[in-house]
Design brief:
Layout: H1 2-15, E1 23-26, E2 31-34, H2 41-47, E3 58-61, E4 68-72, E5 79-83, E6 90-92, E7 103-105, E8 112-116, E9 125-130, E10 135-138, E11 146-151, E12 158-162, E13 171-175, E14 184-187, E15 194-200, E16 206-214, E17 217-224, E18 230-234, E19 243-248, E20 254-259, E21 267-272, E22 279-280, E23 288-294, E24 300-307, E25 310-317, E26 323-325, E27 333-339, E28 345-352, E29 355-364, E30 371-376, E31 394-399, E32 405-411, E33 419-425, H3 439-448, E34 451-455, H4 465-468, H5 476-491, E35 496-506, H6 508-520, E36 526-530, H7 536-542, H8 545-555, H9 561-570, E37 583-588, H10 596-608, E38 613-618, H11 628-645
Parallel strand pairs: 33-34, 33-35, 35-36, 36-37, 37-38
Antiparallel strand pairs: 1-2, 2-38, 3-4, 4-5, 5-6, 7-8, 8-9, 9-10, 11-12, 12-13, 13-14, 15-16, 16-17, 17-18, 19-20, 20-21, 21-22, 23-24, 24-25, 25-26, 27-28, 28-29, 29-30, 31-32, 32-34
Helix pairs in contact: 1-7, 1-10, 5-6, 7-8
Amino acid sequence: MKNKGLLSVLLLLVSLPLLAVETRTANNGNLVMEDIPQIPDTIVQDLNRYQNVRSAPFQSFSQSGDSLYITTRFGDVAQLHRVDKPAGARHQLTFFDEPIGSVQRRPGNDHIAFTMDAGGSENAQIFLFDPKDGSSRLLSDGESRNGAVLWSNQGDRLAFQSTRRNGAANDIWLLEPDKPEAATLLMESGDGSWWGPSDWNSDDSKLLIQQYVSASDSRIYLQAVGAKDKTLLAGSADAPTTNFALAFDSKDKGMFLITDRFGQFQQLAYQAFDGSEAKPITRDIPWDVDGFAISKKGDRAAFIVNQDGFHALYLLDTHSLKYQQVDGLPIGLAGGLQFDEQGKTLGLTLNTAQTPSDSFVLTLGKKPLEYGKLTRWTYSEVGGLDTDKFVQPELVRYESFDERRIPAFVYKPNKQGPHPVVISIHGGPEAQYQPSFSSTFQLWVEKLGVAVIAPNVRGSAGYGKEYLSLDNGFKREDSVKDIGALLDWIATQEDLDSSRVAVFGGSYGGYMVLASSMHYSDRLKAAVDIVGISNFVTFLENTEDYRRDLRRVEYGDERDPEMREFLEKISPSNNVDKINVPMFVIQGQNDPRVPVSEAEQIVAALRNAGKPVWYMNALNEGHGYRKKENRDIYQQAVVLFFQQHLLK
């Protein structure tokens, strides 16, 4: 029962002795801070420029291809803007109090379907926006969780994923924008996995359907519109593999997909619908393919390869299946690939350690593999900072308990050491730290003089399917041991101070912070847990219905007695006697992924044990802080926390 775990938390809270907790609020009462000291004006002033960095990721071409739609923040949250020429002015189009989510331009005109939720709840709704008059109207039901929005080629229908049937199932629906109230159920999910539409065929009679069961099990289906049955194209329950549907080919005779069935990495492949085996395209590239886009004609495509955390861009001739890397891109990350309707240009977002996400356009030649100039369209403000002086990360590999080499990115100050260290642990766990622009890391390096290390512990994506599976189920704490090995490595570095180390992380990374504090308190000075899992059993019982089974595949099924005993044993909330490091817990009240009860129970347990803990909860946020006014105070408080507990 979903509320069973929450009830146990409440019983814990009411059974605790009354403790004197100093509470204050900010941002019209939306940000609640407990036992957090007043932040000195010197910190606010020092951080001001770092907190006024913007970004401008590419979202779509206009119908004519002459303008770009981007998202950027002029006020408190990111909104939709239009840019009409390279380095041109950004014309704000939407003015909502909540940030814009996904953006999909309607084929044939400039109407835009976008998603937006309220207060970080992730119950995203679908809206239709008309840039000519600035009007928008609701297309979804206003209550359910909606996403994976996909326009038909004719622009007369939307396929999308929604929980509107029962609040839990990830079904696929169809609607016509002129009569959204008549939305119809295309595919009913019969399990707890994720389902969504991937591509329409040329006459909009069929859809490629994606099923995601886990990081190592995903399947592709073909379904005709109006039909109940669907045909399995790739993947199976008996022999799980990773398969992601990308697009139909130009003649609807087959599909492009990403799959790991040919080796350790996720390769680009082509599979005909005649029953023949898929053909790997990128067999000679020993890294994951991360992104893909195909032109409207279907004669050319582009894809991204994740090479040890950095991105490379390739062009593909979809008929010969030959590809070529695009030279001259800055070393960093790329995303948001999209061709204009004429197939003459490719829009994308680029991000490096020294430049935030900005929009670029690559001019294409007449032949599929020909390309010309890469033009930067947006120049995001960086608060007056000289980002050329930002520290570039160094990729290192250190040895863990089983002799496995763990990759990590290290940011070091340009000053004499030894430096205090902040270990930043990514979430997921099926994710990967990649060296993107981070004003936060640079702020810590410059203002606090600390080194920042971002490891990709076992279970991280990007290093092959074996590495991805090394922390599953009963092997969960092996990834925590990788942090212990990192502490050992730090002790061998003359310019790093192993006596002053902090851990920092969000979501699953928050669990890793708490678990590291359990096992290595004697080697840590401070810990910052952001929306982290403090007890796997209560987390699985209380996370939203639509994602519970997805998480059970990764963490284990708490309904199994043996697994439940193991999860209780390793959960930080049951081991606060082992946590002897100052803790800062940060949470969003409306978090649907890691419920606020996860933060409340670890804070209560630490306080009951008489251990120091700062607690911050934003009542208008969810899984992380998206509103600038909240992010600013959170970042300032983290700096104060490090000053008081790490640097002394």
